[in-house]
Each structure stands twice: as structure tokens, then as C-alpha cells.
Amino acid sequence: MSNLPATFAALGDPTRFAIVERLLTEGELNAGAVQDGMSISAPAISRHLKVLRSAGVINQRVERQQRIYSVRPEAVQGISAWTMSYREFWQASLDRLEMALQQEIKRK
Prior knowledge:
The chain has helices at 4-11, 14-26, 31-35, 42-54, 73-107, and strands at residues 29-30, 58-63, 66-71. By secondary structure, it is of the alpha+beta class. It has a single domain (4-107), classed as Winged helix-like DNA-binding domain superfamily/Winged helix DNA-binding domain (Arc Repressor Mutant, subunit A). The protein has a three-stranded antiparallel beta sheet with strand order 1-3-2. Strand 2 (58-63) and strand 3 (66-71) form a beta hairpin. The longest helix is centred in the last third of the chain and has 35 residues, at 73-107. The radius of gyration is 20 Å and the shape is elongated.
């Protein structure tokens, strides 16, 4: 989880977030397929992919002359673990609130 600040910084850009969402839903894609449907240039896509790689969010592998990109499961697991820890906190807080409200109702 030590890389979470870099992960969140990389995902804070709407284009990079969209790239990761697309890779999550469609699986591995080459750079051209990542760019399809986006209104940005190939060099811009390349820069976004580099930021995501540097942050450890995606993997790149070379297949002949293509670069193939995929989401790193460890990055998704790190985000999930972090959010689940706060989910437990909020659930406990809501449970305490519910108990307090029930006690207040009983007093009336």
C-alpha cells in the first residue's frame, strides 16, 4: 500500500482514469486500441500510459512491434484494501449511530 499516493495521483487525471477503466473492462489492449474513441493524440496517450506505468498501475509487455497494456492486479488490490479499511470504519460508526437512535426512541 505504500504506492497508493502515486496510484491515486495517476488516477486523478480523467484521461488516465478512463484508460484504466477501459483496460479493466476490455482486458489487455495495445496503445492504438487504447487511443480508439479518445480525442487525444498518440503522443498524449503515450505520456498517459507512461505515467500509469511509473505509478505501478499498469503493465506493459512487448509483442513483436506492439506494446500491450494491462492493469496490475496488485494496484487494484491495494486500492480495494485501502477502501475496505475505511468501509469498516464507517460501518462501525453507522452501527453506533443506529444504536444511539434506537436508545433515543426507547426513551420517548
